[in-house]
Amino acid sequence: MLAAPRLDNLCSAFCAIEALVAAADREPSRTLAVTLFDHEEVGSASRAGADGPMLGDIAERLVHARGGTRDDYLAAIQDSVCVSADMAHAVHPNYAERHEPDHHVHLNAGPVIKINANQRYATEAGTEAFFQLACERAGAPFQKWVMRTDLACGSTIGPLTAARHGMRTVDVGCAQLSMHSAREMCGALAPAWMVAALTESLLLD
User: Fold this and answer.
1) How confident is the model over 117-168, as pLDDT tens digits?
2) Are 200 and 130 in contact (CB under 8 A)?
3) Nearest to residue 179, comparing CAs of 113, 114, 106, 88?
4) Sheet holding 2-4, edge to edge
5) Residue 41, by phi and psi: left (phi above 0), alpha (psi -120 to 50) or beta?
6) Residue 63: is it exposed, middle or buried by C-beta count within 10 angstroms (0-12/13-18/19+)?
7) Cα end-to-end distance, the chain, whole Å
């Protein structure tokens, strides 16, 4: 196990940066990006939050820097996939009844693809398949988590990105226990698998 403060969401940030470096080494000509936002835990509605203009502004400037037009930028957004990486709740043995019985998430069992019927996670069929393929290419196991629809569900920046920019999005994460406590815990194998899966997702066409 890996126990440390602030795994949510420093673990995902670390994995994303490691994946970006690995993918850039393999295909240096591709345009790859990782965006790390502030203020996710308070709703992301800020200048530097995911509900602000930063991602769209930077992406458009990158397209213009290459001589592209506004139409080229919109086409690039439609051709992109956002992997929204946040930690995922593993099933706590004392509260197993609060989870869908066919969607239990465990430590050291691979990255979690998060699904919610009310769009609290932005995963849809196409992006679910996209990340599953990335895991398969990386040789990483994966899990799928569906929140019980009769219970309130947390959210991520995934739905904000999908709605604000019209970008295809999948919500994923490493499984953990004791989320938001002073000392959180995830599986020791989880970060390496997530790095491998994120690397492949950056390289998928």
Assistant:
1) 888 999 999 999 999 999 999 999 999 999 777 777 788 989 999 999 999 9
2) no
3) 88
4) 2-4, 184-186, 175-177, 88-89
5) alpha
6) buried
7) 34
Whole-angstrom Cα distance, residue 140 to residue 176? 17
Single-letter residue type at 156: T
Note the pTM of the prediction, 2 decimals. 0.93
Residues 119 and 112: their CA atoms lie apart, in Å, by 16
pLDDT in tens, 162-192: 999 999 999 999 999 999 999 999 999 999 9
- The beta strands (E) that lie in the chain are given as 2-4, 81-85, 88-89, 112-115, 143-146, 168-173, 175-177, 184-186
Whether the Cβ atoms of residue 23 and residue 203 lie closer than 8 Å to each other:
yes
Mean pLDDT of 15-21: 98
Closest CA to 34 of 46, 54, 16, 12: 16
9 prior amide bond cis, ω within 30: yes
